[in-house]
Cell division protein FtsI
Amino acid sequence: MAAPRSGRRRTSPRAVAAGIAHPARRARALMLGVLIVLSLFAAQLVRLQGLDAASVSAAALGERLQSRAIPAARGSITDVNGEDLAVSVERRRIIADPTLVKDYERREEAADGSSEVVGEGYAAAAEVVAEITGSDEADVLRRLTEPLGEQYAILVPDASPQQWQEIRAAGIRGVSSEEFMRREYPLGESTAPLLGWVGSGDMPAGGLELVNDEALTGEPGEALYEVGRDGEVITTGVYEEDPAEPGQDLRLTLDGDLQWRAYDAVRTRVKEAGAISGYAAVMDVETGELLALTSYPSFDPSDSTQDADEMRNAAVEDVYEPGSTSKLITAAAALEQGIVDVETPIEVPVTMSRAGTRFKDAEPHPVEYLTFGGVLAKSSNMGTILYGEKLSDDQLYDWMRRFGIGDRSGLGLPGESPGLVPEPSTWSATTRYTFMFGQGLSGTMLQQLGVFQTVANGGVMVPPSIVAGTVDEEGRYTEDEQQEGRRVISEETSQTLTDIMQSVPSTEGTAPLAAVPGYHVAGKTSTASRVDPETGRYSGGVTSSFMGFAPADDPKYAVAVVIQGPTRISEFGGVIAGPVFADLMRYTLQRQGIPPATTPPTQIEIEFDPEEKVGDGSGDTLGDIAIKDERTDG
Protein backbone atom coordinates (compact mmCIF):
# COMPACT_ATOMS: atom_id res chain seq x y z
CA MET A 1 0.00 0.00 0.00
CA ALA A 2 1.52 3.37 -0.92
CA ALA A 3 2.82 5.86 1.68
CA PRO A 4 0.61 8.82 2.34
CA ARG A 5 1.67 12.19 0.63
CA SER A 6 2.70 15.15 2.66
CA GLY A 7 0.63 18.36 2.54
CA ARG A 8 3.66 20.45 1.22
CA ARG A 9 3.81 20.96 -2.56
CA ARG A 10 7.10 20.17 -4.24
CA THR A 11 8.59 22.53 -6.85
CA SER A 12 10.60 21.23 -9.72
CA PRO A 13 14.24 22.42 -9.83
CA ARG A 14 13.81 23.18 -13.51
CA ALA A 15 10.81 25.35 -12.82
CA VAL A 16 12.77 27.31 -10.22
CA ALA A 17 15.55 28.00 -12.69
CA ALA A 18 13.11 29.19 -15.27
CA GLY A 19 11.58 31.61 -12.82
CA ILE A 20 14.88 33.24 -11.88
CA ALA A 21 16.57 33.69 -15.31
CA HIS A 22 13.99 33.14 -17.89
CA PRO A 23 15.29 34.30 -21.27
CA ALA A 24 12.27 36.44 -21.96
CA ARG A 25 12.42 38.16 -18.62
CA ARG A 26 16.14 38.69 -18.88
CA ALA A 27 15.76 40.27 -22.28
CA ARG A 28 13.13 42.58 -20.96
CA ALA A 29 15.41 43.58 -18.05
CA LEU A 30 18.33 44.26 -20.36
CA MET A 31 16.12 46.22 -22.69
CA LEU A 32 14.89 48.31 -19.81
CA GLY A 33 18.47 49.02 -18.70
CA VAL A 34 19.52 50.02 -22.21
CA LEU A 35 16.54 52.31 -22.52
CA ILE A 36 17.40 53.96 -19.23
CA VAL A 37 21.02 54.54 -20.34
CA LEU A 38 19.93 55.80 -23.73
CA SER A 39 17.48 58.09 -22.05
CA LEU A 40 20.27 59.50 -19.95
CA PHE A 41 22.42 59.98 -23.05
CA ALA A 42 19.53 61.57 -24.88
CA ALA A 43 18.86 63.90 -22.00
CA GLN A 44 22.55 64.85 -21.84
CA LEU A 45 22.61 65.35 -25.59
CA VAL A 46 19.55 67.57 -25.43
CA ARG A 47 21.21 69.55 -22.67
CA LEU A 48 24.50 69.90 -24.53
CA GLN A 49 23.04 70.68 -27.92
CA GLY A 50 20.10 72.60 -26.74
CA LEU A 51 20.22 74.17 -23.35
CA ASP A 52 24.06 74.42 -22.90
CA ALA A 53 25.15 74.40 -26.56
CA ALA A 54 26.63 77.91 -26.51
CA SER A 55 28.62 77.48 -23.31
CA VAL A 56 29.97 74.06 -24.25
CA SER A 57 30.94 75.21 -27.71
CA ALA A 58 32.64 78.26 -26.27
CA ALA A 59 34.56 76.12 -23.80
CA ALA A 60 35.78 73.82 -26.57
CA LEU A 61 36.73 76.75 -28.77
CA GLY A 62 38.46 78.44 -25.86
CA GLU A 63 40.79 75.49 -25.54
CA ARG A 64 41.75 75.87 -29.20
CA LEU A 65 42.10 79.65 -29.29
CA GLN A 66 45.41 81.41 -28.84
CA SER A 67 46.38 85.05 -29.13
CA ARG A 68 49.52 86.92 -30.09
CA ALA A 69 50.48 90.55 -29.96
CA ILE A 70 50.82 92.42 -33.23
CA PRO A 71 53.77 94.81 -32.86
CA ALA A 72 53.14 98.42 -33.82
CA ALA A 73 55.53 99.96 -36.30
CA ARG A 74 57.51 102.76 -34.73
CA GLY A 75 57.12 106.01 -36.62
CA SER A 76 59.78 106.75 -39.21
CA ILE A 77 62.20 109.64 -38.91
CA THR A 78 62.79 111.35 -42.24
CA ASP A 79 64.84 114.25 -43.50
CA VAL A 80 63.29 117.43 -44.84
CA ASN A 81 62.81 115.78 -48.24
CA GLY A 82 61.05 112.70 -46.85
CA GLU A 83 64.08 110.40 -47.12
CA ASP A 84 64.23 107.78 -44.36
CA LEU A 85 66.76 108.36 -41.59
CA ALA A 86 65.23 105.82 -39.17
CA VAL A 87 62.62 103.24 -40.15
CA SER A 88 61.06 100.12 -38.60
CA VAL A 89 61.01 96.99 -40.75
CA GLU A 90 59.09 93.75 -40.14
CA ARG A 91 61.28 90.85 -39.05
CA ARG A 92 60.64 87.32 -37.81
CA ARG A 93 62.07 85.38 -34.87
CA ILE A 94 62.12 81.69 -35.85
CA ILE A 95 61.08 79.60 -32.84
CA ALA A 96 60.34 75.92 -32.24
CA ASP A 97 58.78 73.39 -29.90
CA PRO A 98 61.56 70.75 -29.69
CA THR A 99 59.13 68.07 -28.50
CA LEU A 100 57.43 68.24 -31.91
CA VAL A 101 60.51 68.86 -34.07
CA LYS A 102 62.14 65.60 -32.96
CA ASP A 103 59.71 63.61 -35.14
CA TYR A 104 60.47 65.62 -38.31
CA GLU A 105 61.38 63.72 -41.47
CA ARG A 106 62.98 65.52 -44.38
CA ARG A 107 61.95 64.00 -47.68
CA GLU A 108 63.12 64.48 -51.24
CA GLU A 109 61.30 63.44 -54.37
CA ALA A 110 62.92 60.90 -56.64
CA ALA A 111 62.80 60.96 -60.42
CA ASP A 112 59.92 58.46 -60.45
CA GLY A 113 57.77 60.74 -58.29
CA SER A 114 58.27 58.81 -55.09
CA SER A 115 59.88 60.36 -52.01
CA GLU A 116 62.52 59.14 -49.66
CA VAL A 117 63.63 60.21 -46.20
CA VAL A 118 66.99 62.02 -46.35
CA GLY A 119 67.12 63.31 -42.80
CA GLU A 120 65.36 63.00 -39.49
CA GLY A 121 64.81 64.85 -36.25
CA TYR A 122 66.70 67.87 -34.97
CA ALA A 123 69.61 67.54 -37.39
CA ALA A 124 67.35 67.57 -40.45
CA ALA A 125 65.36 70.56 -39.15
CA ALA A 126 68.52 72.51 -38.33
CA GLU A 127 69.85 71.82 -41.81
CA VAL A 128 66.71 73.22 -43.48
CA VAL A 129 66.57 76.32 -41.30
CA ALA A 130 70.28 77.05 -41.80
CA GLU A 131 70.05 76.64 -45.57
CA ILE A 132 67.20 79.12 -45.84
CA THR A 133 68.42 81.78 -43.39
CA GLY A 134 72.17 81.48 -43.88
CA SER A 135 72.61 80.75 -40.18
CA ASP A 136 75.25 78.46 -38.77
CA GLU A 137 73.81 74.94 -38.84
CA ALA A 138 75.64 73.86 -35.69
CA ASP A 139 74.27 76.88 -33.84
CA VAL A 140 70.68 76.11 -34.89
CA LEU A 141 71.11 72.48 -33.82
CA ARG A 142 72.50 73.60 -30.45
CA ARG A 143 69.50 75.88 -29.91
CA LEU A 144 67.18 72.91 -30.58
CA THR A 145 68.97 70.54 -28.25
CA GLU A 146 69.51 73.17 -25.55
CA PRO A 147 66.20 75.06 -25.63
CA LEU A 148 65.25 77.95 -23.39
CA GLY A 149 62.32 75.89 -22.15
CA GLU A 150 60.99 72.39 -22.72
CA GLN A 151 58.75 73.60 -25.52
CA TYR A 152 60.47 76.84 -26.54
CA ALA A 153 63.65 77.43 -28.51
CA ILE A 154 64.79 80.42 -30.57
CA LEU A 155 66.40 79.01 -33.72
CA VAL A 156 67.06 82.28 -35.58
CA PRO A 157 66.72 85.58 -33.65
CA ASP A 158 66.33 87.71 -36.77
CA ALA A 159 65.01 86.53 -40.14
CA SER A 160 63.17 88.19 -42.98
CA PRO A 161 59.47 87.55 -43.66
CA GLN A 162 60.46 85.88 -46.95
CA GLN A 163 62.80 83.49 -45.14
CA TRP A 164 60.01 82.59 -42.74
CA GLN A 165 57.67 81.80 -45.63
CA GLU A 166 60.29 79.42 -47.09
CA ILE A 167 60.75 77.71 -43.72
CA ARG A 168 57.00 77.43 -43.33
CA ALA A 169 56.72 75.84 -46.76
CA ALA A 170 59.22 73.19 -45.66
CA GLY A 171 56.55 71.86 -43.27
CA ILE A 172 58.67 71.32 -40.18
CA ARG A 173 56.16 70.39 -37.49
CA GLY A 174 56.68 72.51 -34.34
CA VAL A 175 58.53 75.40 -36.04
CA SER A 176 56.80 78.79 -36.06
CA SER A 177 57.69 82.47 -35.91
CA GLU A 178 57.23 85.58 -33.80
CA GLU A 179 56.84 88.91 -35.54
CA PHE A 180 58.79 91.95 -34.37
CA MET A 181 60.01 95.29 -35.70
CA ARG A 182 63.68 96.12 -36.17
CA ARG A 183 64.94 99.69 -36.31
CA GLU A 184 67.19 100.51 -39.25
CA TYR A 185 69.23 103.65 -39.90
CA PRO A 186 70.04 104.12 -43.61
CA LEU A 187 72.70 106.79 -43.02
CA GLY A 188 74.33 104.80 -40.22
CA GLU A 189 77.09 106.54 -38.27
CA SER A 190 76.53 109.94 -39.85
CA THR A 191 73.22 110.43 -38.00
CA ALA A 192 73.66 108.06 -35.05
CA PRO A 193 74.58 110.62 -32.33
CA LEU A 194 71.71 112.87 -33.39
CA LEU A 195 69.00 110.22 -33.83
CA GLY A 196 70.03 107.92 -30.98
CA TRP A 197 69.07 104.25 -31.21
CA VAL A 198 66.46 101.71 -30.11
CA GLY A 199 67.89 99.10 -27.78
CA SER A 200 66.69 95.82 -26.34
CA GLY A 201 63.02 95.66 -25.48
CA ASP A 202 62.33 98.37 -28.06
CA MET A 203 63.48 100.99 -25.57
CA PRO A 204 64.82 104.21 -27.12
CA ALA A 205 68.18 105.46 -25.97
CA GLY A 206 69.60 108.88 -26.69
CA GLY A 207 68.92 111.47 -29.36
CA LEU A 208 65.65 112.20 -31.09
CA GLU A 209 64.46 108.61 -30.60
CA LEU A 210 64.33 109.26 -26.86
CA VAL A 211 63.10 112.87 -26.92
CA ASN A 212 60.23 112.07 -29.31
CA ASP A 213 59.45 108.57 -28.04
CA GLU A 214 55.82 109.33 -27.19
CA ALA A 215 55.02 110.51 -30.71
CA LEU A 216 57.02 107.76 -32.41
CA THR A 217 55.57 104.87 -30.38
CA GLY A 218 52.45 103.19 -31.76
CA GLU A 219 49.71 101.05 -30.16
CA PRO A 220 50.25 97.26 -30.45
CA GLY A 221 47.39 95.15 -31.81
CA GLU A 222 46.26 91.59 -31.07
CA ALA A 223 45.40 88.54 -33.19
CA LEU A 224 43.11 85.69 -32.01
CA TYR A 225 43.36 82.39 -33.90
CA GLU A 226 42.46 78.69 -33.64
CA VAL A 227 45.06 75.93 -33.27
CA GLY A 228 44.91 72.16 -33.51
CA ARG A 229 46.12 69.51 -31.10
CA ASP A 230 49.74 69.85 -32.18
CA GLY A 231 49.71 73.62 -32.04
CA GLU A 232 49.36 74.21 -35.78
CA VAL A 233 47.15 77.06 -36.92
CA ILE A 234 43.78 75.96 -38.31
CA THR A 235 43.63 78.05 -41.45
CA THR A 236 39.85 77.64 -41.78
CA GLY A 237 39.25 78.30 -38.11
CA VAL A 238 38.48 81.43 -36.15
CA TYR A 239 40.70 84.44 -36.82
CA GLU A 240 40.10 87.87 -35.37
CA GLU A 241 42.48 90.80 -35.46
CA ASP A 242 42.67 94.12 -33.69
CA PRO A 243 45.22 95.88 -35.93
CA ALA A 244 48.19 97.78 -34.53
CA GLU A 245 48.33 101.55 -34.88
CA PRO A 246 51.73 102.80 -36.06
CA GLY A 247 53.44 105.74 -34.40
CA GLN A 248 53.67 109.18 -35.97
CA ASP A 249 56.42 109.90 -38.43
CA LEU A 250 58.90 112.60 -37.51
CA ARG A 251 60.08 114.97 -40.24
CA LEU A 252 63.33 116.78 -39.53
CA THR A 253 64.81 119.99 -40.91
CA LEU A 254 67.91 117.94 -41.72
CA ASP A 255 69.07 117.44 -45.30
CA GLY A 256 70.26 113.82 -45.52
CA ASP A 257 72.77 114.44 -48.32
CA LEU A 258 74.26 117.44 -46.55
CA GLN A 259 74.37 115.50 -43.27
CA TRP A 260 76.38 112.72 -44.87
CA ARG A 261 78.74 115.19 -46.57
CA ALA A 262 79.34 117.02 -43.29
CA TYR A 263 80.08 113.77 -41.46
CA ASP A 264 82.43 112.54 -44.15
CA ALA A 265 84.26 115.88 -44.30
CA VAL A 266 84.76 116.02 -40.53
CA ARG A 267 85.81 112.36 -40.34
CA THR A 268 88.36 112.86 -43.10
CA ARG A 269 89.79 116.00 -41.49
CA VAL A 270 90.05 114.44 -38.03
CA LYS A 271 92.06 111.57 -39.50
CA GLU A 272 94.24 113.85 -41.63
CA ALA A 273 95.03 116.11 -38.70
CA GLY A 274 95.57 113.29 -36.20
CA ALA A 275 92.89 114.92 -34.07
CA ILE A 276 90.79 113.63 -31.20
CA SER A 277 87.38 114.48 -32.58
CA GLY A 278 85.40 116.98 -34.59
CA TYR A 279 81.88 118.31 -35.20
CA ALA A 280 80.05 120.44 -37.71
CA ALA A 281 76.68 122.10 -38.16
CA VAL A 282 74.81 123.91 -40.92
CA MET A 283 72.00 126.28 -39.94
CA ASP A 284 69.38 128.35 -41.75
CA VAL A 285 70.11 131.90 -40.58
CA GLU A 286 66.52 133.18 -40.60
CA THR A 287 64.75 130.20 -39.00
CA GLY A 288 67.47 128.56 -36.91
CA GLU A 289 66.69 125.23 -38.58
CA LEU A 290 69.61 122.82 -38.68
CA LEU A 291 70.34 121.27 -42.05
CA ALA A 292 73.20 119.21 -40.63
CA LEU A 293 74.52 118.35 -37.17
CA THR A 294 77.20 115.70 -36.97
CA SER A 295 80.22 114.55 -35.02
CA TYR A 296 83.12 112.11 -35.30
CA PRO A 297 83.96 109.59 -33.88
CA SER A 298 80.47 108.17 -34.12
CA PHE A 299 78.98 104.69 -33.63
CA ASP A 300 76.89 102.05 -35.36
CA PRO A 301 73.29 102.51 -34.12
CA SER A 302 72.40 98.91 -35.00
CA ASP A 303 75.16 97.40 -32.83
CA SER A 304 73.83 97.01 -29.30
CA THR A 305 77.11 95.50 -28.04
CA GLN A 306 78.95 98.82 -28.05
CA ASP A 307 79.93 100.72 -24.94
CA ALA A 308 77.08 103.09 -24.06
CA ASP A 309 79.61 105.73 -22.94
CA GLU A 310 80.82 105.99 -26.53
CA MET A 311 77.30 106.31 -27.96
CA ARG A 312 76.98 110.03 -27.29
CA ASN A 313 76.38 113.25 -29.18
CA ALA A 314 79.63 115.15 -28.78
CA ALA A 315 78.34 118.03 -30.93
CA VAL A 316 76.01 119.12 -28.11
CA GLU A 317 77.61 117.48 -25.08
CA ASP A 318 81.22 118.60 -25.45
CA VAL A 319 82.09 121.94 -23.89
CA TYR A 320 85.31 123.75 -24.72
CA GLU A 321 86.85 127.17 -24.41
CA PRO A 322 85.75 128.84 -27.66
CA GLY A 323 88.70 131.16 -28.10
CA SER A 324 88.66 133.73 -30.87
CA THR A 325 85.18 133.02 -32.22
CA SER A 326 84.05 134.52 -28.91
CA LYS A 327 85.82 137.79 -29.81
CA LEU A 328 82.74 138.48 -31.91
CA ILE A 329 80.79 138.98 -28.67
CA THR A 330 83.38 141.39 -27.25
CA ALA A 331 83.41 143.30 -30.52
CA ALA A 332 79.60 143.49 -30.61
CA ALA A 333 79.54 144.74 -27.01
CA ALA A 334 82.10 147.46 -27.73
CA LEU A 335 80.13 148.64 -30.75
CA GLU A 336 76.83 148.58 -28.87
CA GLN A 337 78.33 150.50 -25.95
CA GLY A 338 79.71 153.14 -28.31
CA ILE A 339 83.32 152.49 -27.38
CA VAL A 340 84.55 151.97 -30.95
CA ASP A 341 83.59 152.18 -34.57
CA VAL A 342 84.95 150.23 -37.49
CA GLU A 343 87.89 152.59 -38.12
CA THR A 344 88.90 153.29 -34.54
CA PRO A 345 92.73 153.13 -34.50
CA ILE A 346 94.32 150.69 -32.08
CA GLU A 347 98.07 150.50 -31.67
CA VAL A 348 98.93 146.87 -30.87
CA PRO A 349 102.26 146.40 -29.06
CA VAL A 350 104.58 143.40 -29.23
CA THR A 351 103.48 142.26 -25.77
CA MET A 352 101.55 143.87 -22.95
CA SER A 353 101.11 143.39 -19.22
CA ARG A 354 97.79 143.21 -17.40
CA ALA A 355 97.10 142.00 -13.83
CA GLY A 356 100.68 140.79 -13.49
CA THR A 357 100.45 138.63 -16.61
CA ARG A 358 102.13 139.28 -19.95
CA PHE A 359 99.83 138.83 -22.94
CA LYS A 360 100.81 138.32 -26.55
CA ASP A 361 99.24 137.38 -29.84
CA ALA A 362 99.30 133.92 -31.39
CA GLU A 363 102.20 134.84 -33.65
CA PRO A 364 105.04 137.25 -32.83
CA HIS A 365 104.87 140.62 -34.58
CA PRO A 366 106.23 144.15 -34.30
CA VAL A 367 104.00 147.02 -33.28
CA GLU A 368 100.87 146.95 -35.46
CA TYR A 369 98.68 149.91 -36.29
CA LEU A 370 95.28 148.35 -36.75
CA THR A 371 91.79 149.69 -36.92
CA PHE A 372 89.11 148.12 -34.76
CA GLY A 373 88.05 146.19 -37.86
CA GLY A 374 91.65 145.11 -38.41
CA VAL A 375 91.96 143.82 -34.83
CA LEU A 376 88.95 141.56 -35.36
CA ALA A 377 89.97 140.52 -38.85
CA LYS A 378 93.51 139.61 -37.74
CA SER A 379 92.23 138.12 -34.45
CA SER A 380 94.59 140.07 -32.21
CA ASN A 381 94.30 139.12 -28.54
CA MET A 382 96.08 142.25 -27.39
CA GLY A 383 94.04 144.50 -29.66
CA THR A 384 90.88 142.93 -28.27
CA ILE A 385 92.03 143.63 -24.72
CA LEU A 386 92.84 147.25 -25.60
CA TYR A 387 89.25 148.06 -26.57
CA GLY A 388 87.57 145.37 -24.45
CA GLU A 389 88.97 146.70 -21.19
CA LYS A 390 86.79 149.75 -21.67
CA LEU A 391 83.90 147.42 -20.77
CA SER A 392 83.21 146.70 -17.11
CA ASP A 393 83.22 143.18 -15.69
CA ASP A 394 79.45 143.21 -15.44
CA GLN A 395 79.11 144.39 -19.04
CA LEU A 396 81.38 141.61 -20.31
CA TYR A 397 79.46 139.00 -18.36
CA ASP A 398 76.08 140.42 -19.39
CA TRP A 399 76.94 140.40 -23.10
CA MET A 400 78.13 136.80 -22.95
CA ARG A 401 74.81 135.81 -21.43
CA ARG A 402 72.81 137.90 -23.92
CA PHE A 403 74.36 135.85 -26.71
CA GLY A 404 73.27 132.61 -25.03
CA ILE A 405 76.61 131.48 -23.61
CA GLY A 406 75.91 129.63 -20.36
CA ASP A 407 72.42 128.50 -21.44
CA ARG A 408 71.33 125.42 -23.34
CA SER A 409 70.55 126.19 -26.95
CA GLY A 410 66.92 125.10 -26.73
CA LEU A 411 67.36 122.22 -29.18
CA GLY A 412 66.31 119.81 -26.43
CA LEU A 413 68.70 116.95 -27.18
CA PRO A 414 69.71 114.66 -24.29
CA GLY A 415 72.98 115.52 -22.60
CA GLU A 416 73.24 119.02 -24.02
CA SER A 417 75.46 121.15 -21.80
CA PRO A 418 74.79 124.78 -20.86
CA GLY A 419 78.50 125.48 -20.73
CA LEU A 420 80.06 127.58 -18.01
CA VAL A 421 80.25 131.36 -17.70
CA PRO A 422 81.61 132.25 -14.23
CA GLU A 423 80.04 135.27 -12.54
CA PRO A 424 82.30 138.31 -12.06
CA SER A 425 82.41 137.77 -8.30
CA THR A 426 84.41 134.57 -8.91
CA TRP A 427 86.90 136.03 -11.39
CA SER A 428 90.60 136.16 -10.81
CA ALA A 429 92.63 139.25 -11.70
CA THR A 430 93.26 137.98 -15.24
CA THR A 431 89.82 136.52 -15.97
CA ARG A 432 88.35 139.75 -17.37
CA TYR A 433 91.14 139.90 -19.95
CA THR A 434 91.00 136.24 -21.05
CA PHE A 435 87.21 136.52 -21.19
CA MET A 436 87.55 139.06 -23.97
CA PHE A 437 89.17 136.55 -26.32
CA GLY A 438 87.24 133.44 -25.28
CA GLN A 439 89.35 131.79 -22.58
CA GLY A 440 88.19 131.21 -19.00
CA LEU A 441 84.66 130.30 -20.08
CA SER A 442 83.24 127.31 -21.92
CA GLY A 443 80.40 126.52 -24.26
CA THR A 444 79.21 124.18 -26.98
CA MET A 445 79.51 124.45 -30.73
CA LEU A 446 75.79 125.25 -31.00
CA GLN A 447 76.14 128.17 -28.60
CA GLN A 448 78.98 129.62 -30.66
CA LEU A 449 77.09 129.02 -33.90
CA GLY A 450 74.19 130.93 -32.35
CA VAL A 451 76.42 134.00 -32.08
CA PHE A 452 77.09 133.93 -35.82
CA GLN A 453 73.44 133.24 -36.61
CA THR A 454 72.50 136.31 -34.60
CA VAL A 455 74.92 138.57 -36.47
CA ALA A 456 73.88 137.10 -39.83
CA ASN A 457 70.17 137.58 -39.00
CA GLY A 458 70.41 141.33 -38.48
CA GLY A 459 71.00 141.00 -34.74
CA VAL A 460 68.04 138.71 -33.95
CA MET A 461 68.84 135.39 -32.26
CA VAL A 462 66.59 132.45 -33.17
CA PRO A 463 66.92 129.20 -31.14
CA PRO A 464 68.12 126.23 -33.20
CA SER A 465 65.57 123.60 -34.22
CA ILE A 466 65.80 120.16 -35.76
CA VAL A 467 62.18 118.87 -35.89
CA ALA A 468 60.07 120.27 -38.72
CA GLY A 469 56.84 118.46 -37.77
CA THR A 470 54.99 115.14 -37.51
CA VAL A 471 52.98 113.05 -39.98
CA ASP A 472 50.13 110.84 -38.69
CA GLU A 473 48.81 107.53 -40.06
CA GLU A 474 46.51 109.37 -42.46
CA GLY A 475 49.40 111.36 -43.91
CA ARG A 476 48.40 114.63 -42.24
CA TYR A 477 51.39 116.86 -41.59
CA THR A 478 51.51 119.02 -38.47
CA GLU A 479 54.24 121.63 -38.45
CA ASP A 480 56.21 122.04 -35.26
CA GLU A 481 55.76 125.35 -33.51
CA GLN A 482 58.67 127.65 -34.29
CA GLN A 483 60.22 129.56 -31.43
CA GLU A 484 60.33 133.31 -31.65
CA GLY A 485 63.59 135.19 -31.97
CA ARG A 486 64.83 138.00 -29.76
CA ARG A 487 66.92 141.00 -30.66
CA VAL A 488 70.42 140.96 -29.20
CA ILE A 489 72.22 143.70 -31.15
CA SER A 490 71.18 146.41 -33.58
CA GLU A 491 71.07 145.97 -37.33
CA GLU A 492 73.85 148.57 -37.61
CA THR A 493 76.17 146.58 -35.34
CA SER A 494 75.26 143.41 -37.21
CA GLN A 495 76.18 145.01 -40.54
CA THR A 496 79.45 146.41 -39.19
CA LEU A 497 80.55 143.01 -37.90
CA THR A 498 79.54 141.39 -41.20
CA ASP A 499 81.60 143.91 -43.17
CA ILE A 500 84.63 143.30 -40.95
CA MET A 501 84.40 139.50 -41.08
CA GLN A 502 84.45 139.47 -44.87
CA SER A 503 88.16 140.27 -44.54
CA VAL A 504 88.84 137.09 -42.54
CA PRO A 505 88.53 134.50 -45.38
CA SER A 506 90.82 136.58 -47.61
CA THR A 507 94.51 137.00 -48.27
CA GLU A 508 94.53 139.84 -45.72
CA GLY A 509 92.79 137.80 -43.03
CA THR A 510 93.55 134.69 -40.99
CA ALA A 511 91.63 132.14 -43.07
CA PRO A 512 92.08 132.40 -46.84
CA LEU A 513 91.39 128.64 -47.02
CA ALA A 514 87.84 129.29 -45.79
CA ALA A 515 86.95 131.34 -48.88
CA VAL A 516 84.22 130.03 -51.18
CA PRO A 517 84.95 130.95 -54.82
CA GLY A 518 82.17 133.05 -56.30
CA TYR A 519 80.56 133.93 -52.95
CA HIS A 520 81.14 136.56 -50.28
CA VAL A 521 81.77 134.88 -46.92
CA ALA A 522 81.90 136.42 -43.44
CA GLY A 523 83.56 134.39 -40.72
CA LYS A 524 86.00 134.04 -37.86
CA THR A 525 88.80 131.69 -36.93
CA SER A 526 89.71 130.34 -33.52
CA THR A 527 92.67 128.48 -32.09
CA ALA A 528 91.98 128.02 -28.38
CA SER A 529 94.01 126.19 -25.76
CA ARG A 530 92.37 123.00 -24.50
CA VAL A 531 92.10 122.24 -20.81
CA ASP A 532 93.28 118.76 -19.88
CA PRO A 533 90.33 117.32 -17.87
CA GLU A 534 92.72 115.25 -15.74
CA THR A 535 95.06 118.06 -14.71
CA GLY A 536 92.84 121.12 -15.13
CA ARG A 537 95.70 122.85 -16.97
CA TYR A 538 96.16 124.06 -20.53
CA SER A 539 98.03 120.96 -21.66
CA GLY A 540 95.52 119.29 -23.92
CA GLY A 541 96.49 120.81 -27.26
CA VAL A 542 94.15 123.21 -29.03
CA THR A 543 90.61 123.53 -30.34
CA SER A 544 90.71 124.66 -33.97
CA SER A 545 87.54 126.09 -35.47
CA PHE A 546 86.05 128.28 -38.14
CA MET A 547 82.52 129.67 -38.14
CA GLY A 548 80.80 131.99 -40.54
CA PHE A 549 77.91 132.69 -42.88
CA ALA A 550 77.14 133.43 -46.53
CA PRO A 551 76.28 135.14 -48.77
CA ALA A 552 77.60 138.05 -46.71
CA ASP A 553 75.46 140.59 -48.57
CA ASP A 554 72.26 138.55 -47.90
CA PRO A 555 73.04 135.83 -45.32
CA LYS A 556 71.22 132.53 -45.77
CA TYR A 557 73.28 129.85 -44.02
CA ALA A 558 75.72 129.68 -41.12
CA VAL A 559 78.29 126.88 -40.82
CA ALA A 560 80.43 125.83 -37.85
CA VAL A 561 83.38 123.43 -37.96
CA VAL A 562 85.32 122.44 -34.83
CA ILE A 563 88.32 120.08 -34.71
CA GLN A 564 89.60 119.03 -31.30
CA GLY A 565 93.29 118.39 -30.63
CA PRO A 566 94.90 118.34 -34.11
CA THR A 567 98.48 117.06 -34.05
CA ARG A 568 99.37 117.25 -37.76
CA ILE A 569 99.22 119.80 -40.61
CA SER A 570 98.70 122.82 -38.33
CA GLU A 571 96.91 123.90 -35.20
CA PHE A 572 95.38 127.12 -36.55
CA GLY A 573 91.64 127.18 -37.08
CA GLY A 574 91.90 128.80 -40.50
CA VAL A 575 94.11 125.98 -41.77
CA ILE A 576 92.50 123.01 -40.00
CA ALA A 577 88.80 123.92 -40.01
CA GLY A 578 88.73 126.51 -42.79
CA PRO A 579 88.83 124.06 -45.74
CA VAL A 580 86.03 121.95 -44.23
CA PHE A 581 83.94 125.10 -43.76
CA ALA A 582 84.53 126.12 -47.38
CA ASP A 583 83.50 122.70 -48.67
CA LEU A 584 80.29 122.56 -46.63
CA MET A 585 79.33 126.16 -47.34
CA ARG A 586 79.89 125.78 -51.08
CA TYR A 587 77.89 122.55 -51.18
CA THR A 588 75.05 124.10 -49.16
CA LEU A 589 74.81 127.26 -51.27
CA GLN A 590 74.84 125.35 -54.54
CA ARG A 591 72.41 122.67 -53.29
CA GLN A 592 69.99 125.40 -52.18
CA GLY A 593 70.30 127.21 -55.50
CA ILE A 594 71.90 130.38 -54.11
CA PRO A 595 73.49 132.27 -57.05
CA PRO A 596 77.10 133.51 -56.87
CA ALA A 597 77.85 137.15 -56.13
CA THR A 598 77.77 139.72 -58.94
CA THR A 599 79.35 142.59 -56.97
CA PRO A 600 82.72 142.88 -55.21
CA PRO A 601 82.91 142.21 -51.45
CA THR A 602 82.84 145.01 -48.91
CA GLN A 603 86.29 146.36 -48.10
CA ILE A 604 87.27 147.90 -44.76
CA GLU A 605 90.42 149.63 -43.58
CA ILE A 606 92.54 147.07 -41.75
CA GLU A 607 95.40 149.38 -40.81
CA PHE A 608 95.90 153.09 -40.22
CA ASP A 609 98.80 155.46 -40.82
CA PRO A 610 100.37 156.40 -37.46
CA GLU A 611 101.89 159.53 -38.99
CA GLU A 612 98.54 161.19 -39.52
CA LYS A 613 97.65 163.80 -36.89
CA VAL A 614 94.42 165.10 -35.57
CA GLY A 615 93.46 168.69 -36.23
CA ASP A 616 94.65 170.07 -32.90
CA GLY A 617 98.21 168.86 -33.43
CA SER A 618 98.31 166.88 -30.23
CA GLY A 619 99.99 163.97 -31.89
CA ASP A 620 97.20 161.51 -31.11
CA THR A 621 96.33 159.02 -33.79
CA LEU A 622 92.97 159.16 -35.52
CA GLY A 623 89.90 157.84 -33.74
CA ASP A 624 87.91 158.18 -30.61
CA ILE A 625 90.62 156.44 -28.59
CA ALA A 626 94.34 156.22 -29.16
CA ILE A 627 95.99 153.46 -27.15
CA LYS A 628 99.73 153.71 -26.62
CA ASP A 629 100.04 151.15 -23.88
CA GLU A 630 103.61 149.88 -23.52
CA ARG A 631 104.72 151.06 -26.93
CA THR A 632 107.74 149.18 -28.21
CA ASP A 633 109.59 149.31 -31.44
CA GLY A 634 109.37 145.55 -31.88
Confidence is low (pLDDT under 50) at residues 613-634. The chain has two domains: 68-248, 256-296+318-339+391-591.
